[in-house]
DNA sequence: CTGTTAGCGCTTTCAG
DNA sequence: CTGAAAGCGCTAACAG
């Protein structure tokens, strides 16, 4: 049974046999150890080439106790360009470290998130970057005792300690609302996620704070909640527009809501200023003015990867270091309306 | 040295010791083998719970020779919504099979693609889904002798045999061009990728075939090439519009070109019909008519994952089966222009 | 139904 | 500088 091997997958022993050295010498050459004679190094390299040998990373990981060079990424919806950009940033940061990303899409299902965490831990990932789907991550405490470090993205950890990377939700909403106020708006509606969602409540807080600072009132019926889909946002915007005194501007807490609101305006043939989180392509060619809050999702991913790298095996951060938190800044971009006589520029940027 | 273990990572032996059975019995229980007595099963399950034991998938993979339950995905640009949707479809198809996706972004660099293939093979992925960056994949033959099966997406394999999933590039371009002809256009310009890119040449072929069938001439200067970025597309479109007899419609082979062409029209205050591959959000609210070719990128990913599943360990396809090819159909969607008096519908679909 | 033995492919450890 | 022995955590193969 000694010779019953697949021809295409040689092992280190076969390389050793061909090179007439021990497996250890081959192992040393493969890892670039300096303690190998020039002669042996060449013999081994030749044998590797002849056999088309490729080291088995799984076997290596097993022996090296958990050094798998893999990182888990759990997102709620890869179809959202925001998460795609996040994944891109993470991959770009980790690949040069020789680490690979294992991708999981939860479709917003907390149970699926929990399963994924368990499975990734089983696969010995060295760390996990998590965009949480549910309200709490307390389960991580029992799921990962002594397991891989976790970095959370987009909302702070709840029920557990972990590093995290956040967007300046409050500041961005505050700045965008200020831009609307500066443009002379006094009747400003709000279209957003339910307050149970972290980003939704933070952005609502920023919105309210700006209004309050300006002494501008916010009638109860100017506040509408919608889900993350166009239809629900359109319906909510319709309600705003149907008010006896409709708002002259609407602030939306996410991309879907912004575009839904625009469609409602267009269908009702109303001109009002649209404002919201997340820039989008063609925002500058719409028939109403658009003011958006934007930020660099790829950079968010890079930050998350760097935080994680610090916690992983070989990282620079002491495990006793307190949870770290990075807040990524936002920028307000004002797009002129298509038929407007205003500035013709594609976008006017202002620091948040 | 027997007890020098990290408390948080128990092994199967510790579970066995606690349950007072052998490691094999634990292993059997974990995998749901029916040949375990009820008593022992309960003892083991209790011990697992007490210790918080989680099987080590790396050790399992090593023993089970390559059954890692991982698949490699190599794309050129995750930031492109098309690839994000592709990844989503692949993940959705593989996750229920207990397989995880290892993601790699090549940024269009063939050398990076080759490195990624080697690394993924080293990590013992059971298969690879590849959106090729370079003109040939001949290197796979020497890189993967007896290695994991590969499925290509978006363009057919070159220099090697492999299953692949393609978009009906020819048919889509043909149908879209026919739609322009049916709308009465006789001066139709072409804005596309260099013909060295598979999709570019196929779409050009479809475009030409439709014109030829209709007996409509295609002047040389009606054909312009652009890269996959807005600036280059805008410049190329400018040239088309600057012709003595400019086209009344422009067919573009990709999303970036379509939007670039639209920006050129808008800047030059010209009304012409825009047509192109890939639908995009807000296409229906532009100031000119837009006719796009669309297809389901997520479904493309699902098809790719299914083809791969057939070739992987435990798959249903004999390895001697000839390379399979799936062509995903396209749909032509006509969006009415914003100020037009035509149909008010969001989009008129027609089978390609 | 259960356990023992052996070994996946590699690297740590220690002895030359 | 080199190699032999042992074993990472798990499971196939066999024997009871």
TrEMBL record, chains A, B:
One of its GO terms (molecular function) is transcription cis-regulatory region binding. Keywords: DNA-binding, Transcription, Transcription regulation. InterPro entries: HTH_LacI, Lambda_DNA-bd_dom_sf, Peripla_BP/Lac1_sug-bd_dom, Peripla_BP_I. The keyword rRNA-binding does not apply. Residues 10-64 form the HTH lacI-type domain. It comes from the Bacteria. Gene3D superfamilies: 3.40.50.2300, lambda repressor-like DNA-binding domains (1.10.260.40). Pfam families: LacI, Peripla_BP_1. This is LacI family transcriptional regulator. It comes from Actinopolymorpha pittospori.
């Amino acid at each position: 049974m000694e010779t019953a091997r697949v021809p295409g997958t040689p092992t280190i022993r076969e390389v050793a046999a061909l090179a007439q050295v021990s497996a250890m010498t081959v192992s040393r050459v493969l890892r670039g150890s300096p303690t190998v004679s020039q002669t042996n190094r060449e013999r081994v390299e030749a044998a590797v080439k002849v056999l088309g040998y490729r080291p088995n990373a799984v076997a290596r990981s097993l022996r090296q106790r958990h050094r798998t060079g893999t990182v888990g990424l759990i997102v709620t919806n890869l179809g959202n360009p925001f998460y795609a950009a996040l994944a891109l940033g993470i991959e770009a940061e980790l690949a040069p470290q020789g680490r690979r990303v294992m991708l999981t899409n939860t479709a917003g299902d907390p149970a699926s998130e929990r399963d994924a965490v368990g499975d990734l831990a089983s696969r010995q990932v060295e760390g996990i970057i998590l965009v949480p789907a549910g309200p709490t991550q307390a389960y991580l405490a029992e799921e990962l005792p002594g397991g891989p470090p976790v970095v959370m993205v987009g909302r702070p950890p709840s029920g557990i300690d972990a590093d995290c990377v956040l967007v300046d939700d409050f500041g961005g909403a505050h700045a965008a609302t200020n831009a609307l106020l500066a443009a002379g708006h006094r009747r400003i509606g709000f279209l957003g996620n339910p307050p149970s969602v972290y980003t939704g409540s933070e952005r609502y807080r920023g919105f309210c704070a700006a209004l309050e600072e300006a002494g501008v009132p916010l009638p109860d019926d100017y506040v509408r909640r919608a889900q993350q889909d166009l239809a629900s946002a359109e319906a909510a915007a319709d309600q705003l527009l149907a008010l006896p005194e409709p708002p002259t501007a609407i602030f939306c807490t996410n991309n879907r809501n912004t575009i839904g609101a625009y469609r409602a305006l267009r269908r009702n043939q109303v001109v009002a200023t649209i404002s919201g989180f997340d820039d989008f392509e063609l925002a500058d060619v719409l028939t109403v003015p658009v003011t958006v809050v934007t930020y660099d999702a790829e950079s968010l991913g890079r930050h998350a990867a760097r935080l994680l790298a610090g916690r992983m095996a070989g990282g620079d951060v002491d495990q006793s270091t307190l949870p770290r938190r990075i807040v990524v800044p936002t920028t307000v971009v004002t797009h002129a309306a298509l038929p407007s006589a205003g500035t013709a520029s594609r976008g006017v940027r202002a620091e948040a």
